[in-house]
Amino acid sequence: MKTIIMGGGVVGMTMAYFLAKDGHEVTVIERNEAAGRETSFQNAGLIATAHSSAWASPRSPGILIRSLFDKNAALVVKPRIDFQMMGWGLKFLRECTAERFRVNTLRKLRICKYSEQFMPEVAAETGIEFHHLTKGLFYCFRDQAHFDEVSKGPNLLAENGVEIQVLTPDEMIALDPAFAPYKGTVVGALYCPTDGSGDARIFTEKMAEHAQAKGAKMEYNTAIKALRANASEIEAVITDKGEFTADNYVLSCGAYSPLISKTVGVPLPIYPVKGYTADFPCDEGHDTPEIGGVDEDVLVAWGKFGDRFRVGGKAVFAGYDTGYKPSDFTAILNTAKAIFPNSCDWTKPSYWACVRPMTPDGPPIFGTAKYRNFWLNTGHGHIGWTMACGSARIVAD
Q: Torsion angle of alpha carbons 282, 285, 287, 289, nearest 10°?
């Protein structure tokens, strides 16, 4: 059976691998020159089941209001007339109740837990090396009240199978001495020993190679213009290099999926939310942390990927703008340098920005949509890397 996958990021290429392995005749259409060149290129790299909580929560409206008056806030809403953002925002606010937060978090968690089963399997089958660290992740807090809330009260993730340990700063340092400069700022952390990190770009590139080895075709440098459909099915993908046809069509273009699906009358509640990352060289002379993580009170993430140390953060609502300038990274780097002053060569940054495909409720969008042969695997938000293997298996099955 012929299947076209639209999108060559980590979700699309992992799905290409599974489908080719299952015997499908697979073609991937990707507008860039290679796999993993957008959201998967230089993301935070955290494989983070313990970070699967929905963004929409009872705390979210307050965070949004405070961010409007803080120029260094991690959440930024650029003032502009954007009807897509307005519609998405209203849906998001409706998801900010305690009950919706619970339901949405558990839906995300189930996908993350399912995905955990397949990452080791894929790595073993393929022998892929992608700087995979399995030493766990720290979710750190500098506000005592916030830490008390998450560490002493009921923990939805822990109640549903996620191993979480509550650590003091000294216990963090005992696990990874590189966190010593953080003492005095951090009041504690939640530690998930089953989480980890890895380079999503390398993984995506290798998935493409292994999918090709199993017969998949890669149509790089090919931009999708629209879909063509009749009353019951998709007939073709229209690109700048002509039309492509198949029996089944899978949409995995991240934040750009709504722009494609709307050409056949399928609206998708996905909004692009920009994030920033910066890579720095590191070697044995640096005190680079082996345990990645997130500072939950300033929303800065970090991770080590071979000879590179990466920091990232922010959630910027500015449409499809992926531009950046050095000053956009100031707050992120000030935080990271204070935590890890000798972790890398801070004078040699490699900057990046991309947009995450966020749904109002949080979980990705799967299944068929309007047409019997049109499949969706998109909208994975900030943890597409964590969900990639499980999502691919769900849609492949």
A: 40
